[in-house]
Amino acid sequence: MSGVRVLVGTRKGAFVLTSEGKREKWDISGPHFAGWEIYHMKGSPADPNRLYASQCSGWFGQMIQRSNDGGKTWEPVGNKFIYDGVPGTHQWYDGKPHPWEFKRVWHLEPSLTDPDTVHAGIEDAALFRSKDGGQNWEELSGLRKHGSGPRWQPGAGGMCLHSIIQDPKNPGRMFIAISAAGAFRTDDGGETWQPINKGLKSLYIPDPEAEVGHCVHHIAMHQARPGVLFMQKHWDVMRSDNGGDSWQEVSGNLPTDFGFVIDVHAHDPETIYVVPIKSDSEHYPPDGKLRVYRSKTGGNEWEALTRGLPQSDCYVNVLRDAMAVDAMDSCGVYFGTTGGQVYASADAGDNWKPIVRDLPAVLSVEVQTLA
Amino acid sequence: MPAHLRTLASFHGEVQLEVQGAVTVRSVLDALEAQFPMLRGTIREHVTQERRPFLRFFACGEDLSHDSVDAPLPDAVVSGTEPLLIIGAIAGG
What we know:
The complex is a heterodimer. By secondary structure, chain A is an all-beta fold. Chain A is 0% helix and 41% strand.
């Protein structure tokens, strides 16, 4: 491994941060697409120079950008996301039926094997796929047409499909999550879907154990163990050992189990990371202390990681797609804040340093480990 | 054109378009999008073809945003002596 490329999406543009293997000195390029919201950028596992970015604006709508040279140059590709058939309705905040309307792309997930195939998770929640490098998009409508669709409802950030996880050992299997509908799984390449929310308990909905309606904030998986999933729900950190068939709470000794991000160590599938946030009405760390919590036991037992992170007067948030890990021998962990800092640890979380301090609010962080 | 759209389409200043048939907002936008396909969906919605709410169309000192997109544009715009202005709303403050 020779280096690391960190892809940062912010409220006002995209930034590409690169470093050699030691991850001490960083080159920062950007802003790309200055002034636009970049909800997410991600590179193809099959071709690290192929990147995709979701670029949007309240004035001009949605764009998808593609790079073939690792983010040095970009070209706009297709931005037409048309729901399959008559979209129907989901629930609005007031519980009334509301028509499905495209708003933006929250997450882009390139195929594990084909650089030209990429999935898009959008708001209002649906999953799209392009097989031609982002030029044309087709909805995998079996998800939205799952019978529960009319009961889905938006979280405070909108009814977004924000997590897309492909199973590296089973090409037909994929996991997605929607706020606030819950998690879903397909075992046939996206044709049909089933909710996988058994074991989730959400006290803010009429039936706390309903089939759908849970505000899942993010899910994560280790590539070597695709049957094990970790979830940061609105409240509660959860774990599944059976591909989502059932979940158990693993919040353990966390100071608060509200939060957005969750991720897994690159080399140890039982080591996981979260950033506890005080509450759903106070989107900042408890006590003004920015702490990553690490569990080496797959949950329940957590330790606070503080070295190099602000431990007083810190009131930033860490949004759901704003944490990632690299695959260097000593696993690097990265996260971005709404205050514009991107923090990095080159030793699995023991010590942290900001790569940059003053970007626009960070919406997403992804990492590529370069050969 | 708003600066962000000029950047997106990689041009500076004004665009001059050859429009076949009646010169209307619709036919001008059709010609613009044919020349710069990346602008599709940014000025008018893909599905409804309606103007995005934060954009306006001005010409010859008039706001044409709420006129029919099939109404003929002023002669000065047709002849190329006056521009059709696509304006981004002043918002964000």
